[in-house]
Amino acid sequence: MIICKNVSYTYDSKKKVVKNVNMKLSSGKTGVLLGVAGSGKSTLLKCIGKNIVDYKGNIRTSDNCRYINHLPSFSDNFTGIEYVEMLLSLSDNKTNELVNNVIDSIGVRKDLNKSIKIISSYTRKVLILLSTLCLDKEIILIDEPFKGLDHKSQLLVLELIKLLKSKGKTILFSTSLFYYGFYLADELFLLNKGKIVHMLNNFINEKEYEKQILDLLLN
Fold first, then answer.
1. Domain 1-62+140-148+173-219 homologous superfamily, CATH
2. pLDDT digits (tens, 9 = 90+) for 59-70
3. Which of 55, 68, 122, 157 is 20 to 30 A from 150 (CA-CA)?
C-alpha cells in the first residue's frame, strides 16, 4: 500500500514542484501517475521511494519498496544474466523461479546473455524492472518505462508490466504517454501543476478515457 498525506517538495525557495499531494494506492493494484513533462511525476516517485527524504508531509509504504530508474555503473562489468544472478543471491533466491519465468515469458534470455554495455534500450528497461523483482520488492515504482523506446519495444514493456501485475505486485509508474494508462491502470493519478486528481479506470472505451484525461491534464 502507498499512502501520501499532504506531501510537498520544493527544489528551491521559488519553485514548489509537488503541492500538498494526497493519494492512496491499495496493495496489489496498479496506479499510473500521468502528467506532462516537468509536472513533478519523477519527484513524487522519488519521495515515495525514499530517494528524496526532505519532503514535507507524510508518506507510508511497506518497507519492501524500491525506486529504481537506472542501472548502477558497475553493472557494465556483467552480462544481463550475471547481474540478475548476483541480485538473486542477495535475496536468498526467494524469487529465483518467478524471475526466470518472467525472463522466459517475455523472451529476453538471449538478449540478457550479452554484456550490459551493449544491450538495447528495451533490454535495459527490462533489466531495471527485473532488478526490483530480484530484490523481492512487493511495491514496484517505475519512472517513465516507455520513454526512449520505439513503439514495438513500448508494447513489449506494456506486456511485461501486465505480467508483473498478474503476480500481485503493487505497481506505481509514471508516464507522459497518457494512453498507456487505459490499458494498465486500476487507478489513475493525474498530476497537474503539482496537485493530484484521482480517478478510477472505469472508462467504457479509449475515446472516453482520452477526452477526460486530456481535459484534466491540459487545463
1. P-loop containing nucleotide triphosphate hydrolases (3.40.50.300)
2. 999 767 777 778
3. 68
